[in-house]
Amino acid sequence: MPEISKQAAAAGRRFDTVLIANRGEIAARIERACRDLGLKTVAICSEADRQAPYIRTADGFLCIGPSAAGKSYLNQDAILLAARLTGAGAIHPGYGFLSENAAFADAVETAGLVFIGPTSSSIATMGDKIAAKRAMMAAGVPCVPGPDTALPDDPDAIERIALEIGYPVIVKASGGGGGRGMRVVPEAGQLQEAIALTREEARKAFGSPSLYMEKFLEHPRHIEIQVLCDDHGNAVWLGHRDCSMQRRHQKVVEEAPAPGIAPDVIQPVGMACVEACRQVGYRGVGTFEFLYENGAFYFIEMNTRLQVEHPVTEMTSGLDIVQAQIKAAQGEVLDLAQDDVACEGHSFECRINAEDPETFLPSAGVITHLALPQGPDIRVDTHIHAGYKVSPYYDSLIAKLIVHAPTRAKAMARMCEALAGTEIEGIATNLPFLKALFEDHAFARGETDIHYLEQWLKLRRAAA
Ligand code: ADP
């Protein structure tokens, strides 16, 4: 784009008030970033969240609907109306809810507001797993072996594709998400049934029967790369994170950097991610998720939004990712070159969930006592306080405990201290489970994969 039109485009993206279309800890986090940038904020809430602290500290607020998310945080018309009534010039979607909804991003821009995220077409491309894989392969990002095209209808042709990849394979819905719409096929005998079931599921759940197939990796780690881009073709990657500690595909503990990965192994992958961003004209923050097995990286998906675990990268890079995301949305030129990115030390994040530590059933109620740890290298991102009522309507995440230290071992020790200094009474939380996990020797040695946590839980249950 010529310089003059770039400036004009940037001028059109200026705003002084941000509506935060989310709740909980991330609403509080975004509010802080806006305040630090001198921007005004409008908080929205459902009836269940009227007492949330970030509602009181925002410059304005509107209750937009009943407690059920479908009638409030997912109600696009109500959110757009709230922006119009309050004079907000931009909408920050946070994570979850409408954050990766291309139609919403489009509606925001059509209403003359700025969507704090990538363009709706970037969201749509990355939301279609086949299109995303094709874009990544074109940019030289390493992908899981398997074609970047939809499976044909002909059963014999499907069988040939599976044989070429080699069993076990995984069949995935192109429109799938949230861990749904995929099936592992260990051997040829189970292929046709798996295809039929996944196709039907995909048709019903995602409105498209389109499927693709790739190699099923048996013991991978989950490693991801954070990127930051502007509207002017500049892009950087901010290091990597390991999020292998998962239960039911939900991340529980994250860390940066991923342990045991040599810089010369990750470097080309990071640069390929940056190149992919340039090629697709990506704007703002994003995350490339990879499976990592036997020293090789395999792209699985790109998240086109801010992530829950962004603080571990903020701790190691010293950058404020949310502020950078807002500045990119304003059309500012990225004030950071790749050589300026220097990640130091090690950071862990624990997700503190309101759930039973044994059964993992959600726990709602009033927090009767709260003590949070403090210290120069301890950060707590939360919206809770003593007397806060944890609602049964939403995700069970109530706080994120983040630590930083010069080495991984020291960061683990610091997390143990931070967990010991955290007291939450009145509801059940997963604190006892997190404390036990941080005493686990294999975790301490970095010898885990995406199945480790589930196996560890099974062994613990058997021993109890
Ligand atoms: P979603 O968008 O539903 O989260 P992903 O493609 O990100 O789907 O995959 C979710 C999870 O499924 C991954 O984190 C990983 O645990 C598992 N998975 C996906 N693809 C593969 C694969 N090719 N081999 C092994 N596990 C996989």
Supply database-style keywords:
Dna Ligase, domain 1; 3 domains; D-amino Acid Aminotransferase, Chain A, domain 1; alpha+beta; 36% helix; binds adenosine-5'-diphosphate; 464 residues; eight-stranded antiparallel β-sheet; Rossmann fold
How confident overall, as mean pLDDT? 95
Binned strand content: 25-35%
**What sort of overall outline do the alpha carbons produce when their principal axes are compared?**
globular
- Oligomeric nature of the chains: single chain
Taking all Cα atoms into account, the compactness measure Rg is 22 Å
* Contiguous uncertain segments of 5+ residues: none
* Highest-level CATH class of the largest domain: Alpha Beta
Explain what this protein looks like in three dimensions.
- It is a single chain.
- The protein is of the alpha+beta class and 464 residues long.
- 36% of the residues lie in helices and 26% in strands.
- The chain is globular, with a radius of gyration of 22 Å.
- The strands form five sheets. An eight-stranded antiparallel beta sheet has the order 13-12-9-10-11-14-19-17, with helices on both faces. The chain has a five-stranded parallel beta sheet with strand order 3-2-1-4-5.
- α5 (102-110) runs antiparallel to α6 (120-127) and α7 packs across α10.
- It has helices at 3-12, 24-36, 53-57, 76-86, 102-110, 120-127, 129-139, 155-165, 191-206, 263-280, 310-317, 321-329, 408-420, 431-437, 441-444, 452-463, and strands spanning 17-20, 40-46, 60-65, 90-92, 114-115, 169-177, 180-185, 211-215, 221-229, 235-247, 250-256, 284-293, 296-303, 346-353, 365-366, 369-371, 378-382, 389-390, 397-405, 423-425.
- It contains 16 helices and 20 strands.
- It has three domains: 6-116, 3-Layer(aba) Sandwich (Rossmann fold), CATH 3.40.50.20; 145-215, Dna Ligase, domain 1 (2-Layer Sandwich); 221-463, D-amino Acid Aminotransferase, Chain A, domain 1, CATH 3.30.470.20.
- The mean pLDDT is 95.
- Bound molecules: adenosine-5'-diphosphate.
